[in-house]
Protein backbone atom coordinates (compact mmCIF):
# COMPACT_ATOMS: atom_id res chain seq x y z
CA UNK A 1 0.00 0.00 0.00
CA UNK A 2 1.32 3.45 -0.81
CA UNK A 3 2.27 5.95 1.88
CA UNK A 4 -0.36 8.28 0.51
CA UNK A 5 -3.06 5.67 1.04
CA UNK A 6 -1.89 5.10 4.61
CA UNK A 7 -2.22 8.80 5.45
CA UNK A 8 -5.86 8.86 4.33
CA UNK A 9 -6.88 5.48 5.69
CA UNK A 10 -9.66 5.27 8.26
CA UNK A 11 -8.75 4.17 11.76
CA UNK A 12 -9.19 0.42 11.89
CA UNK A 13 -11.68 0.14 14.67
CA UNK A 14 -15.30 -0.73 14.35
CA UNK A 15 -18.27 -0.41 16.58
CA UNK A 16 -19.05 -4.09 17.01
CA UNK A 17 -15.78 -5.42 18.37
CA UNK A 18 -14.64 -5.75 21.98
CA UNK A 19 -14.42 -2.38 23.69
CA UNK A 20 -16.99 -0.83 21.39
CA UNK A 21 -17.95 1.32 24.37
CA UNK A 22 -21.09 2.65 25.97
CA UNK A 23 -21.42 5.98 24.18
CA UNK A 24 -24.85 6.76 22.68
CA UNK A 25 -23.37 5.94 19.22
CA UNK A 26 -22.12 2.56 20.40
CA UNK A 27 -25.43 1.77 22.09
CA UNK A 28 -27.31 2.61 18.89
CA UNK A 29 -25.09 0.22 16.94
CA UNK A 30 -25.90 -2.49 19.49
CA UNK A 31 -29.64 -1.78 19.31
CA UNK A 32 -29.88 -1.44 15.53
CA UNK A 33 -26.84 -3.27 14.15
CA UNK A 34 -28.27 -4.05 10.69
CA UNK A 35 -30.70 -2.71 8.12
CA UNK A 36 -33.05 -5.56 9.08
CA UNK A 37 -33.21 -4.18 12.63
CA UNK A 38 -33.77 -0.71 11.23
CA UNK A 39 -36.55 -2.03 9.00
CA UNK A 40 -38.32 -3.70 11.94
CA UNK A 41 -38.25 -0.47 13.92
CA UNK A 42 -39.50 1.55 10.94
CA UNK A 43 -42.41 -0.84 10.45
CA UNK A 44 -43.58 0.00 13.98
CA UNK A 45 -43.10 3.75 13.66
CA UNK A 46 -44.60 4.86 10.35
CA UNK A 47 -48.11 4.35 8.93
CA UNK A 48 -48.71 1.09 7.13
CA UNK A 49 -49.40 2.78 3.76
CA UNK A 50 -46.04 4.60 4.02
CA UNK A 51 -44.13 1.42 4.89
CA UNK A 52 -45.80 -0.53 2.08
CA UNK A 53 -45.11 2.30 -0.38
CA UNK A 54 -41.40 2.12 0.43
CA UNK A 55 -40.96 -1.62 0.68
CA UNK A 56 -43.34 -2.78 -2.03
CA UNK A 57 -42.33 -3.79 -5.52
CA UNK A 58 -44.52 -4.44 -8.48
CA UNK A 59 -46.81 -7.49 -8.79
CA UNK A 60 -45.98 -10.08 -6.17
CA UNK A 61 -42.72 -8.37 -5.06
CA UNK A 62 -40.83 -11.19 -6.82
CA UNK A 63 -38.22 -8.93 -8.40
CA UNK A 64 -37.60 -7.13 -5.11
CA UNK A 65 -37.03 -10.47 -3.37
CA UNK A 66 -34.90 -11.71 -6.29
CA UNK A 67 -32.60 -8.67 -5.91
CA UNK A 68 -31.94 -9.60 -2.29
CA UNK A 69 -31.55 -13.33 -2.87
CA UNK A 70 -29.13 -12.75 -5.72
CA UNK A 71 -26.94 -10.41 -3.70
CA UNK A 72 -26.89 -12.86 -0.80
CA UNK A 73 -25.73 -15.59 -3.18
CA UNK A 74 -22.59 -13.77 -4.34
CA UNK A 75 -19.51 -15.31 -2.70
CA UNK A 76 -16.18 -13.50 -2.30
CA UNK A 77 -12.91 -15.24 -1.46
CA UNK A 78 -10.73 -13.51 1.18
CA UNK A 79 -6.98 -13.07 0.77
CA UNK A 80 -4.54 -12.83 3.68
CA UNK A 81 -0.95 -11.87 4.33
CA UNK A 82 -0.99 -8.10 3.84
CA UNK A 83 -3.00 -6.70 6.75
CA UNK A 84 -3.35 -2.96 6.99
CA UNK A 85 -5.80 -0.07 7.06
CA UNK A 86 -8.51 0.17 4.45
CA UNK A 87 -9.42 3.18 2.41
CA UNK A 88 -13.00 3.62 1.09
CA UNK A 89 -12.57 6.98 -0.68
CA UNK A 90 -13.48 6.98 -4.39
CA UNK A 91 -13.98 9.46 -7.17
CA UNK A 92 -17.34 9.06 -8.87
CA UNK A 93 -18.03 11.14 -11.99
CA UNK A 94 -15.67 13.86 -10.85
CA UNK A 95 -16.91 13.94 -7.25
CA UNK A 96 -14.55 12.84 -4.48
CA UNK A 97 -16.67 10.66 -2.15
CA UNK A 98 -15.99 9.16 1.29
CA UNK A 99 -17.22 5.76 0.07
CA UNK A 100 -18.69 4.16 -3.07
CA UNK A 101 -22.18 4.57 -1.61
CA UNK A 102 -24.88 7.03 -2.63
CA UNK A 103 -28.56 7.73 -2.10
CA UNK A 104 -30.96 6.77 -4.91
CA UNK A 105 -33.98 8.91 -5.76
CA UNK A 106 -37.20 7.92 -4.03
CA UNK A 107 -40.05 9.94 -5.49
CA UNK A 108 -42.50 11.44 -2.97
CA UNK A 109 -40.10 10.39 -0.21
CA UNK A 110 -42.05 12.66 2.13
CA UNK A 111 -44.71 9.95 2.38
CA UNK A 112 -42.16 7.76 4.14
CA UNK A 113 -40.80 10.55 6.29
CA UNK A 114 -42.09 14.13 6.01
CA UNK A 115 -39.21 16.44 5.05
CA UNK A 116 -37.12 13.53 3.73
CA UNK A 117 -35.62 15.23 0.67
CA UNK A 118 -33.97 18.05 2.62
CA UNK A 119 -32.83 15.68 5.36
CA UNK A 120 -31.23 13.35 2.81
CA UNK A 121 -29.51 16.25 1.05
CA UNK A 122 -27.96 17.47 4.30
CA UNK A 123 -26.99 13.93 5.34
CA UNK A 124 -25.25 13.35 1.99
CA UNK A 125 -23.12 16.46 2.46
CA UNK A 126 -22.25 15.40 6.02
CA UNK A 127 -21.30 11.87 4.95
CA UNK A 128 -19.62 13.10 1.72
CA UNK A 129 -21.65 10.77 -0.47
CA UNK A 130 -23.81 11.56 -3.52
CA UNK A 131 -27.53 12.16 -3.26
CA UNK A 132 -29.41 11.68 -6.51
CA UNK A 133 -32.50 13.76 -5.77
CA UNK A 134 -35.58 12.88 -7.82
CA UNK A 135 -37.74 14.88 -10.22
CA UNK A 136 -40.53 13.84 -7.84
CA UNK A 137 -38.65 14.79 -4.67
CA UNK A 138 -40.48 16.77 -2.02
CA UNK A 139 -38.04 19.70 -2.09
CA UNK A 140 -36.80 21.59 -5.14
CA UNK A 141 -33.53 20.85 -6.89
CA UNK A 142 -32.38 24.34 -5.89
CA UNK A 143 -32.98 23.51 -2.20
CA UNK A 144 -31.22 20.15 -2.58
CA UNK A 145 -28.19 21.72 -4.26
CA UNK A 146 -28.00 24.33 -1.49
CA UNK A 147 -27.89 21.61 1.15
CA UNK A 148 -25.88 18.86 -0.57
CA UNK A 149 -23.37 21.10 -2.36
CA UNK A 150 -21.01 19.05 -4.55
CA UNK A 151 -22.85 15.84 -3.63
CA UNK A 152 -26.13 16.92 -5.28
CA UNK A 153 -27.05 14.80 -8.31
CA UNK A 154 -30.39 15.09 -10.10
CA UNK A 155 -32.60 12.32 -11.49
CA UNK A 156 -34.75 13.24 -14.42
CA UNK A 157 -38.06 11.87 -15.59
CA UNK A 158 -39.24 13.24 -18.94
CA UNK A 159 -42.09 15.62 -19.60
CA UNK A 160 -42.45 15.11 -23.36
CA UNK A 161 -45.17 17.73 -24.00
CA UNK A 162 -44.10 20.72 -26.13
CA UNK A 163 -40.97 19.02 -27.34
CA UNK A 164 -39.78 18.37 -23.79
CA UNK A 165 -39.84 22.04 -22.84
CA UNK A 166 -40.21 21.32 -19.10
CA UNK A 167 -37.61 18.52 -19.24
CA UNK A 168 -35.04 20.90 -20.66
CA UNK A 169 -36.04 23.64 -18.25
CA UNK A 170 -35.38 21.21 -15.37
CA UNK A 171 -31.96 20.48 -16.88
CA UNK A 172 -31.23 24.20 -17.02
CA UNK A 173 -32.39 24.64 -13.41
CA UNK A 174 -30.16 21.78 -12.26
CA UNK A 175 -27.16 23.37 -13.99
CA UNK A 176 -27.87 26.82 -12.54
CA UNK A 177 -28.24 25.29 -9.08
CA UNK A 178 -24.75 23.81 -9.34
CA UNK A 179 -25.62 20.14 -9.87
CA UNK A 180 -22.79 18.22 -11.57
CA UNK A 181 -24.41 14.87 -12.34
CA UNK A 182 -27.69 14.38 -14.20
CA UNK A 183 -29.33 10.95 -14.44
CA UNK A 184 -32.07 10.15 -16.95
CA UNK A 185 -34.30 7.32 -15.79
CA UNK A 186 -35.08 4.85 -18.58
CA UNK A 187 -36.78 2.02 -16.77
CA UNK A 188 -40.27 3.30 -16.04
CA UNK A 189 -41.81 3.55 -19.53
CA UNK A 190 -45.25 2.76 -18.11
CA UNK A 191 -46.87 3.21 -14.73
CA UNK A 192 -46.34 -0.10 -13.01
CA UNK A 193 -48.96 -1.95 -10.98
CA UNK A 194 -48.14 -1.84 -7.26
CA UNK A 195 -50.79 -3.87 -5.46
CA UNK A 196 -49.82 -2.72 -1.96
CA UNK A 197 -50.47 0.92 -2.87
CA UNK A 198 -53.77 0.02 -4.51
CA UNK A 199 -54.92 -1.92 -1.46
CA UNK A 200 -53.93 0.98 0.82
CA UNK A 201 -55.71 3.57 -1.32
CA UNK A 202 -52.37 5.31 -1.99
CA UNK A 203 -53.48 6.65 -5.34
CA UNK A 204 -53.80 10.15 -6.85
CA UNK A 205 -55.81 11.88 -5.50
CA UNK A 206 -55.12 10.33 -2.09
CA UNK A 207 -58.32 9.10 -0.45
CA UNK A 208 -57.82 8.55 3.27
CA UNK A 209 -59.97 5.84 4.79
CA UNK A 210 -60.79 5.27 8.44
CA UNK A 211 -57.95 2.76 8.52
CA UNK A 212 -55.50 5.35 7.15
CA UNK A 213 -56.57 7.86 9.77
CA UNK A 214 -56.13 5.28 12.51
CA UNK A 215 -52.72 4.35 11.08
CA UNK A 216 -51.55 7.95 11.08
CA UNK A 217 -52.87 8.60 14.58
CA UNK A 218 -50.90 5.63 15.89
CA UNK A 219 -47.63 6.75 14.26
CA UNK A 220 -46.85 9.70 16.54
CA UNK A 221 -43.26 10.55 15.47
CA UNK A 222 -44.34 10.46 11.80
CA UNK A 223 -47.39 12.61 12.57
CA UNK A 224 -45.26 15.18 14.39
CA UNK A 225 -42.89 15.34 11.41
CA UNK A 226 -45.91 15.82 9.14
CA UNK A 227 -47.24 18.65 11.27
CA UNK A 228 -43.81 20.30 11.12
CA UNK A 229 -43.19 19.81 7.39
CA UNK A 230 -46.70 19.88 5.90
CA UNK A 231 -48.12 17.46 3.34
CA UNK A 232 -45.50 16.22 0.86
CA UNK A 233 -45.73 17.88 -2.55
CA UNK A 234 -44.02 17.68 -5.95
CA UNK A 235 -42.05 20.87 -5.33
CA UNK A 236 -40.02 20.72 -8.58
CA UNK A 237 -43.25 20.81 -10.56
CA UNK A 238 -44.99 23.70 -8.84
CA UNK A 239 -43.70 26.38 -11.20
CA UNK A 240 -45.17 24.58 -14.21
CA UNK A 241 -48.78 24.44 -13.01
CA UNK A 242 -51.47 27.11 -12.69
CA UNK A 243 -50.87 29.56 -9.84
CA UNK A 244 -51.31 29.15 -6.96
CA UNK A 245 -50.23 25.50 -7.17
CA UNK A 246 -52.62 23.17 -5.39
CA UNK A 247 -51.92 19.61 -4.26
CA UNK A 248 -54.49 18.24 -6.67
CA UNK A 249 -53.34 20.44 -9.56
CA UNK A 250 -49.67 19.46 -9.21
CA UNK A 251 -50.48 15.79 -8.69
CA UNK A 252 -52.72 15.82 -11.78
CA UNK A 253 -49.94 17.45 -13.81
CA UNK A 254 -47.48 14.77 -12.70
CA UNK A 255 -49.95 11.98 -13.50
CA UNK A 256 -50.66 13.25 -16.99
CA UNK A 257 -47.29 14.66 -18.09
CA UNK A 258 -44.46 12.59 -16.65
CA UNK A 259 -42.91 9.70 -18.51
CA UNK A 260 -40.24 7.54 -16.93
CA UNK A 261 -38.19 6.90 -20.04
CA UNK A 262 -36.53 8.66 -22.98
CA UNK A 263 -35.76 7.85 -26.59
CA UNK A 264 -32.05 7.66 -27.45
CA UNK A 265 -32.56 10.80 -29.54
CA UNK A 266 -33.73 12.68 -26.46
CA UNK A 267 -30.81 11.35 -24.41
CA UNK A 268 -28.56 12.67 -27.18
CA UNK A 269 -30.25 16.08 -26.95
CA UNK A 270 -29.65 16.01 -23.20
CA UNK A 271 -26.02 15.21 -23.85
CA UNK A 272 -25.77 18.30 -26.04
CA UNK A 273 -27.56 20.48 -23.47
CA UNK A 274 -25.80 19.25 -20.32
CA UNK A 275 -22.12 20.06 -19.78
CA UNK A 276 -21.81 17.98 -16.61
CA UNK A 277 -21.71 14.21 -16.19
CA UNK A 278 -24.68 12.38 -17.74
CA UNK A 279 -25.90 9.02 -16.44
CA UNK A 280 -28.66 6.72 -17.65
CA UNK A 281 -30.50 4.96 -14.85
CA UNK A 282 -32.12 1.56 -15.17
CA UNK A 283 -29.91 -0.20 -17.69
CA UNK A 284 -30.33 -4.00 -17.62
CA UNK A 285 -28.93 -5.12 -21.00
CA UNK A 286 -25.41 -4.68 -22.47
CA UNK A 287 -26.94 -3.58 -25.79
CA UNK A 288 -28.67 -0.66 -24.05
CA UNK A 289 -25.36 0.21 -22.37
CA UNK A 290 -23.80 0.27 -25.85
CA UNK A 291 -26.53 2.62 -27.10
CA UNK A 292 -26.00 4.88 -24.11
CA UNK A 293 -22.28 5.06 -24.77
CA UNK A 294 -22.95 5.79 -28.43
CA UNK A 295 -24.90 8.92 -27.45
CA UNK A 296 -22.11 10.01 -25.12
CA UNK A 297 -23.16 9.25 -21.53
CA UNK A 298 -20.54 9.23 -18.76
CA UNK A 299 -22.23 6.77 -16.44
CA UNK A 300 -24.46 3.70 -16.58
CA UNK A 301 -26.59 2.93 -13.55
CA UNK A 302 -27.39 -0.77 -13.60
CA UNK A 303 -30.73 -0.98 -11.81
CA UNK A 304 -34.18 -2.50 -12.00
CA UNK A 305 -35.74 0.33 -10.00
CA UNK A 306 -35.52 -1.76 -6.84
CA UNK A 307 -37.95 -4.31 -8.28
CA UNK A 308 -40.75 -1.80 -8.73
CA UNK A 309 -41.27 -2.02 -12.49
CA UNK A 310 -41.12 -5.57 -13.90
CA UNK A 311 -41.67 -8.59 -11.67
CA UNK A 312 -40.05 -10.95 -14.20
CA UNK A 313 -36.85 -8.88 -14.51
CA UNK A 314 -33.57 -10.48 -13.47
CA UNK A 315 -31.90 -9.36 -10.28
CA UNK A 316 -29.86 -6.28 -11.15
CA UNK A 317 -26.72 -7.83 -9.65
CA UNK A 318 -27.06 -10.78 -12.05
CA UNK A 319 -26.73 -8.55 -15.14
CA UNK A 320 -24.04 -6.30 -13.66
CA UNK A 321 -20.93 -8.30 -14.70
CA UNK A 322 -22.03 -8.59 -18.34
CA UNK A 323 -22.79 -4.87 -18.58
CA UNK A 324 -19.56 -3.89 -16.79
CA UNK A 325 -17.61 -6.23 -19.06
CA UNK A 326 -19.17 -4.74 -22.20
CA UNK A 327 -18.65 -1.12 -21.07
CA UNK A 328 -15.06 -1.61 -19.90
CA UNK A 329 -13.39 1.74 -19.22
CA UNK A 330 -15.74 3.74 -21.47
CA UNK A 331 -18.09 4.85 -18.65
CA UNK A 332 -18.51 4.78 -14.88
CA UNK A 333 -20.62 1.83 -13.76
CA UNK A 334 -23.03 2.46 -10.92
CA UNK A 335 -25.30 -0.12 -9.32
CA UNK A 336 -28.45 -0.11 -7.22
CA UNK A 337 -31.33 -2.48 -6.38
CA UNK A 338 -31.12 -4.49 -3.21
CA UNK A 339 -28.17 -2.93 -1.35
CA UNK A 340 -28.74 -3.49 2.37
CA UNK A 341 -25.24 -3.70 3.82
CA UNK A 342 -21.64 -2.69 3.33
CA UNK A 343 -20.96 -6.26 2.29
CA UNK A 344 -23.50 -5.83 -0.54
CA UNK A 345 -21.56 -2.75 -1.62
CA UNK A 346 -18.37 -4.86 -1.69
CA UNK A 347 -20.18 -7.53 -3.71
CA UNK A 348 -21.33 -5.03 -6.35
CA UNK A 349 -17.86 -3.49 -6.64
CA UNK A 350 -16.33 -6.97 -6.94
CA UNK A 351 -18.73 -7.65 -9.83
CA UNK A 352 -17.80 -4.54 -11.78
CA UNK A 353 -19.46 -1.45 -10.27
CA UNK A 354 -17.40 1.64 -9.47
CA UNK A 355 -20.05 2.91 -7.08
CA UNK A 356 -23.38 1.86 -5.58
CA UNK A 357 -26.54 3.59 -4.44
CA UNK A 358 -29.39 2.57 -2.17
CA UNK A 359 -32.95 3.85 -2.04
CA UNK A 360 -34.91 2.05 0.63
CA UNK A 361 -32.01 1.72 3.10
CA UNK A 362 -31.75 5.47 3.71
CA UNK A 363 -35.50 6.03 3.98
CA UNK A 364 -35.74 3.13 6.43
CA UNK A 365 -33.16 5.00 8.49
CA UNK A 366 -35.43 8.04 8.63
CA UNK A 367 -38.42 5.91 9.57
CA UNK A 368 -36.50 4.29 12.41
CA UNK A 369 -34.68 7.28 13.84
CA UNK A 370 -36.15 10.43 12.31
CA UNK A 371 -33.79 13.11 11.06
CA UNK A 372 -30.56 11.44 12.25
CA UNK A 373 -31.44 8.15 10.54
CA UNK A 374 -29.93 8.91 7.13
CA UNK A 375 -26.58 9.78 8.68
CA UNK A 376 -26.76 6.62 10.76
CA UNK A 377 -27.37 4.46 7.68
CA UNK A 378 -24.52 6.16 5.80
CA UNK A 379 -22.17 5.45 8.73
CA UNK A 380 -23.40 1.88 9.12
CA UNK A 381 -22.92 1.04 5.43
CA UNK A 382 -19.46 2.61 5.40
CA UNK A 383 -18.37 0.83 8.60
CA UNK A 384 -19.66 -2.47 7.25
CA UNK A 385 -17.82 -1.87 3.99
CA UNK A 386 -14.60 -1.16 5.91
CA UNK A 387 -15.05 -4.39 7.84
CA UNK A 388 -15.73 -6.36 4.65
CA UNK A 389 -12.68 -4.85 2.94
CA UNK A 390 -10.49 -5.61 5.96
CA UNK A 391 -11.74 -9.19 6.08
CA UNK A 392 -11.35 -9.66 2.34
CA UNK A 393 -7.80 -8.28 2.31
CA UNK A 394 -8.79 -5.48 -0.08
CA UNK A 395 -7.26 -2.24 1.24
CA UNK A 396 -8.80 -0.03 -1.46
CA UNK A 397 -12.09 -0.02 -3.37
CA UNK A 398 -10.15 -0.77 -6.52
CA UNK A 399 -8.76 -3.97 -4.96
CA UNK A 400 -12.31 -5.29 -4.43
CA UNK A 401 -12.68 -5.69 -8.17
CA UNK A 402 -9.71 -8.07 -8.23
CA UNK A 403 -11.17 -10.56 -5.76
CA UNK A 404 -12.04 -14.10 -6.72
CA UNK A 405 -15.79 -14.49 -6.58
CA UNK A 406 -18.52 -17.01 -7.36
CA UNK A 407 -21.69 -15.76 -8.99
CA UNK A 408 -23.68 -18.75 -10.20
CA UNK A 409 -26.65 -16.80 -11.57
CA UNK A 410 -24.72 -14.23 -13.58
CA UNK A 411 -26.55 -13.56 -16.84
CA UNK A 412 -24.82 -14.60 -20.03
CA UNK A 413 -26.10 -12.48 -22.93
CA UNK A 414 -24.13 -14.23 -25.64
C1 LIG B 1 -40.67 4.20 -2.97
C2 LIG B 1 -39.71 4.32 -4.11
C3 LIG B 1 -39.84 5.37 -5.01
C4 LIG B 1 -38.93 5.49 -6.07
N1 LIG B 1 -39.02 6.58 -6.91
C5 LIG B 1 -38.12 6.73 -7.92
C6 LIG B 1 -38.14 7.87 -8.75
O1 LIG B 1 -38.93 8.80 -8.56
N2 LIG B 1 -37.24 7.94 -9.77
C7 LIG B 1 -36.33 6.94 -10.01
O2 LIG B 1 -35.52 7.02 -10.94
N3 LIG B 1 -36.27 5.86 -9.19
C8 LIG B 1 -37.12 5.74 -8.17
N4 LIG B 1 -37.06 4.64 -7.34
C9 LIG B 1 -36.01 3.64 -7.56
C10 LIG B 1 -34.77 4.02 -6.78
O3 LIG B 1 -34.17 5.17 -7.30
C11 LIG B 1 -33.72 2.90 -6.78
O4 LIG B 1 -33.46 2.51 -8.11
C12 LIG B 1 -34.17 1.69 -5.95
O5 LIG B 1 -34.81 2.11 -4.79
C13 LIG B 1 -32.96 0.84 -5.60
O6 LIG B 1 -33.31 -0.28 -4.88
P1 LIG B 1 -33.24 -0.37 -3.28
O7 LIG B 1 -34.40 0.41 -2.76
O8 LIG B 1 -33.35 -1.82 -3.02
O9 LIG B 1 -31.93 0.23 -2.86
C14 LIG B 1 -37.92 4.52 -6.25
C15 LIG B 1 -37.79 3.47 -5.33
C16 LIG B 1 -38.66 3.38 -4.27
C17 LIG B 1 -38.46 2.26 -3.28
From TrEMBL:
It holds the Pfam family FMN_dh. Its cofactor is FMN. Residues 27-410 form the FMN hydroxy acid dehydrogenase domain. Keywords: Flavoprotein, FMN, Oxidoreductase. Residues 1-36 are annotated as: Disordered. It comes from the Bacteria. Belongs to the FMN-dependent alpha-hydroxy acid dehydrogenase family. This is Alpha-hydroxy-acid oxidizing protein. The lineage of its organism: Bacteria, Pseudomonadati, Pseudomonadota, Alphaproteobacteria, Hyphomicrobiales.
Amino acid sequence: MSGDLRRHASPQKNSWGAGAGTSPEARLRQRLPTLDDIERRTRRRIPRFAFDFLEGGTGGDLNTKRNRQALDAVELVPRYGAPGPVHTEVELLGVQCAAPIGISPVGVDGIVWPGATKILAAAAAKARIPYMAGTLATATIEEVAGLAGPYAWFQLYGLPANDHSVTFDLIKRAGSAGVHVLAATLDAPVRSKRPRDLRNGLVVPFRPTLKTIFDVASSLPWLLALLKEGTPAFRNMEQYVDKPPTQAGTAGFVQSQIKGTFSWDTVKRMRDAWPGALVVKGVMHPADAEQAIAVGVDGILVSNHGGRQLDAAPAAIDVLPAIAGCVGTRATILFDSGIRSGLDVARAIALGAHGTLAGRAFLLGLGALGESGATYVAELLKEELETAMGQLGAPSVDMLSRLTRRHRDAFDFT
